[in-house]
Structure formats: structure tokens, C-alpha cells
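C-alpha cells incoming
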């Protein structure tokens, strides 16, 4: 069994932002040489999320609108006394900061409209890390 790690870094420009990282994840799978296994995509941050869904521009804005509606950034959350970003922690907890996608025949097994995206919930940030781990047989 082979285990391959790759770390991506990126910066974000807005408080809320959706960034498509599909190409970078697919490149990591190719580089890994793994034919069949799993690809784990993890953002080691408490105020971002990782999703697998359609990257259509209107829908990308809808993700943000839904998150704002669900987590109410202007609400008086208790955590806001410390950091004024409780909404980002709550959204990350609900959505999740990790995705696991099967790898078959050296390719991600994702649906036609499933792209892998990072959702920034507390930007802008100069550095966000994304850890990609590909595990499986060569």
C-alpha cells in the first residue's frame, strides 16, 4: 500500500469565498501513482470548509448565501466576544473540513458536476493549507 501526501497553500481575498481546488487535487492523485484507493482532502483550519459539488458561479454564490442564512454572521453569538467569527466556526462544524473521495483506475471517482472546493468563512487570509493524502495500491 502506498501513502502520498501533498500540501497546497492559498490565500483568500474575501470574508466569504469559494475556491475550486479540483485540478490541484486531481494532480495530486496523478502524482501519487495510486491506482485504487482513497483521496482525503483536509483543511486544518476551524473556519473553512471543504465541499464536493457543482462549481457553477451562481451556485457558488448561493453556497455563501445559505451559509450566511444558517449561521447569521451578525448574530450575537457568545464566541463573538472573543473573536467575532462564531459563524465561521459553526459553518465549518456543520459542513466539515474534510472530504474523502474514492480513487479508481488512477482517477477521482467524482460525479460529473462534483468539483472539490474550499469555502473560506473568515477571510481574507494570507495562508490556508489544504492537505491531500492519497492512500491505496499502485
Amino acid at each position: 500500500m502506498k501513502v502520498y501526501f501533498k500540501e497546497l497553500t492559498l490565500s483568500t481575498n474575501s470574508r466569504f469565498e469559494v475556491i475550486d481546488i479540483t485540478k490541484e487535487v486531481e494532480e495530486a492523485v496523478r502524482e501519487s501513482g495510486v491506482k485504487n484507493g482513497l483521496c482525503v482532502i483536509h483543511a486544518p483550519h476551524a473556519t473553512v470548509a471543504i465541499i464536493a459539488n457543482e462549481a457553477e458561479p451562481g451556485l457558488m454564490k448561493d453556497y455563501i448565501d445559505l451559509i450566511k442564512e444558517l449561521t447569521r454572521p451578525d448574530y450575537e453569538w457568545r464566541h463573538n466576544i472573543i473573536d467575532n467569527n462564531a459563524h465561521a466556526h459553526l459553518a465549518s462544524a456543520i459542513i466539515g473540513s474534510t472530504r474523502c473521495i474514492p480513487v479508481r483506475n488512477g482517477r477521482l471517482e467524482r460525479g460529473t458536476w462534483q468539483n472539490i472546493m474550499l469555502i473560506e468563512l473568515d477571510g481574507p487570509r494570507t495562508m490556508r493549507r489544504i492537505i491531500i493524502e492519497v492512500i491505496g495500491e499502485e
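note: Strands lie at 2-10, 17-20, 36-42, 48-53, 98-104, 107-108, 115-120, 128-137.
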